[in-house]
Amino acid sequence: MSNVVGAQASREEEIAFLAMEEVLGIQIQLADAGAGNKVPDGAWIYPGGEGRQGIVEITSPPATSLMSEWATAKRNGTPQSESGSVPTRFGELAEVCTEMLAEDWAQENLDKLLARAADERHLFLFGRGHDILHYFYRLSDSCGDAPSEPVQDLVLPEGISDVWFRGRSTRDAQDRQGSSTVQLARFQSGIGWHRYVASMEERQLPSPNRGIADDPVPEGWRQPKNRSLPLSDE
Predict the structure, then answer these.
(1) What is the pLDDT of residues 183-196, one digit of tens each?
(2) DSSP string, 12-78
């Protein structure tokens, strides 16, 4: 997999990478820097010298109209907002996920993973609008290790080992430049659902999309990982 030295992950990619690293005990490198759109976003080798490799693609359902509205609001200096209602579909989270994974945008990303040789292939999903986010929140909200509502197992495409859903994020209200937590739901083929809470520091993350939001921190304050280094199982 090709990497360009100095290439950086996007903010959404870095949040996913940090969360997965904490959960899986791995170090992820960029896999698609300079290699075009047909290569997954990240790759890693599990520690221990056995050479077991994983790859991940990080994506979200399309939200072109919403992103355009938010960019316009930023340019006009008005609040970014959403309107409209969302169907609750209580008790149908597995059905919602199955329908989502069958959509064209999801299939394109799954095909990208299936086209690469790997021992594990992970799809990491995040949402932009509340029409998607409220389902992901419900998947990852938990009481102990149980979901907040019943959710059935998923049937993943052959060769896909894991699908992750990024849920609610909580930041220290008194220190916007401090730490935050991210709730995650993960479905692992043949095993079932897991739920986690991962933590990260704002300084570890790249700036937000400049077309959508200004970055309130001083230039040079952020220090995200260099993920353009070669893969290693050391």
Answers:
(1) 999 999 999 999 99
(2) HHHHHHHHHHHHHT---EES-TTT-TTS-SEEEE-SSSS--EEEEEEE----HHHHHHHHHHHHHT-
